[in-house]
Structures are given as C-alpha cells and as structure tokens.
Amino acid sequence: xxxxxxxxxxxxxxxxxxxxxxxRAETQRIMQNIQAIYLQCDEEIxxxxxxxxxxxxxxxxxxxxxxxxxxxxxxxMSSIADTVRNPGLRVGTLKLNQYLEEAPAVLDPIGxxxxxxxxxxxxxxxxxxxxxxLLRLVLAFPIGMARLLLIDRVEQGRAFSLxxxxxxxxxxxxxxxxxxxxxEDQILNIRTKTSQIIQTKLSNYRNIDEFNIANPDVKTxxxxxxxxxxxxxxxxxxxxxxxxxxxxxxxxGTYVIASVxxxxxxxxxxxSDFTSGNYKLSLLDPETIAWNSEYLxxxxxxxxxxxxxxxxxxxxxxxxxxxxxxxxxxx
Length: 331
Known about the structure:
It is built from nine helices and nine strands.
C-alpha cells in the first residue's frame, strides 16, 4: 500500500513538472506574440491583441486557480496548494491601453531560478509590494514545502509583525531577526545548509525539484529569505554569504525576496552585484512598477491595492489553520 502511495505521489510530482514546463512554454509563446503586437500596436490589430491577452488570462486562471486574482478585502481564499505548487507570483496588472482587457503581471522566480528585489519608491509602497508577494508565496506551496526567514533591521521587526505572530511555526519562526549579529548568524547558517544540500542530496540531481520528485519520503522544503530594507543590518560577512546564496541558492530551493533601502553604503557596496540577473521591481510612482519580466519588460505594472491589517490577518489565520489541520513530516 505504501509503495502504491509513493507511486501515486511520484505521478503527481511528474505532473507538476509537466505543468510547469507547459506553463513556461505556453507563457513564452503567448507573451512573445503579445510583445510583437505591442511594439507595433495600431487600430487594425487591437482585436488580435485582445484575443491573445484573453488567451493568456484564461491559461493563468486555469493553471494558477485564483492566484492570478487581486486580493480584495472580502475575498475568501481557497485552500493552500494541495499536492503541487502554483507556478508564478502575481505582482499586479499590466498597464495596457485603456480599451484592452486587464491582464495579470506574473513572475515565475522558481521556474526561472531568480530572486526578487523591490527598489525605489517610498518605504510604505515597497512594503505593500513585499507583503503581497509574501502572501502569495505562502499560499502557493503545499503544506510544509515553504519556510520563511524574516529580516527587518530598520524597523526592528515591525515590517513583519503580523506574520511572526500569526504564521504557523512550521512556516516561519516567531523570531524576526533585527540585529546585525543575528542576521549574520542566520545568513551564514543558510549558506551552510545550501552547501550541505548540494553535497548530500544533489550529486545525482540538477536541482531540489528533481530530488523531491525522486525522493518523496525525504522531500526538502523551499527556503525563502525575506528582507525589509536590504542591506541594512548586513555585515561584510553576511553580504558575502548572501552573495553565495544568490548564486547557488536556486539549485537548492533557496530564494531571496527583498525590498531595497533608500540608504545604501557609500563604500565597498554595489547593489548590482546582488540584483544582476534577478527580478527587479522599481516603483516609479505609487501606481507604477517598472519590471524586467522575461517577456513584457516594456509594459509597466500597476501594483495591487494596499491590504488592510484585517485582510492580512484573516489570510494568515487561514494559512495557520490549514497547517494545524494538516501536519506533515518534512526533511
């Protein structure tokens, strides 16, 4: 019976791999067509543009269930992803011609092995984008398959206070790391773990996705380092360790999502050393994000609306209740 269960789990994960491959291939096909049309858009081809956007929107809706939707104050989220994770994280909506249908702006950091950095804008705007991504992140993974390390030096933990007090212990530690020594210790620890995963689990696999498919009984969760006001609180040692994580982390399922501080070090620090090759979301104004999407970097994004504390609390409570009702054993 157990062997049958394992076979069934393997089948589900193979389907996950095929789903993600299809998602990326289909998205690339549609978005390249949309991009070509956008660059020469005129009245004659607007109907075709509309059709392509509708096709992509339908595909996203089907594959990502409700993760393409905006978070509304009265929205009741469906259950957390069950056996497969939802590829893609919604950033907002594409800022298109007013006569065209609205379409979600979606990044796929894991499928493309990229980290996310949120730049420019005032801190409340950056925090809003960060919170939206964080909520979508924890809702997109099966129980036990995502773990969060929360870092907030500037506000001494206040940026993530709702999360630390309401998220289940298996998902995020109750501690928000807010002093330089703690931050350094945690980053060094995660760098050590990524090295251990590469040496002990990935000698015969390209990445942790392949390992988890082949070894469902000892699957390894994804680790997300979520940072408010990077690089505040990062010592030179912590920055070196984070650089290693940015380079080697995606293979082990380790990713960074960070908002970037207005106050950058004047010496011995180049932000591009960390953001190069990764997703960059730059807030041009409260209603506009410039992004470096693989397919639609020419089209800006309208960020989703600010979430009230009540909405965030409600969604986090739903997440925690799901974790409590579905205990799981993870390596």
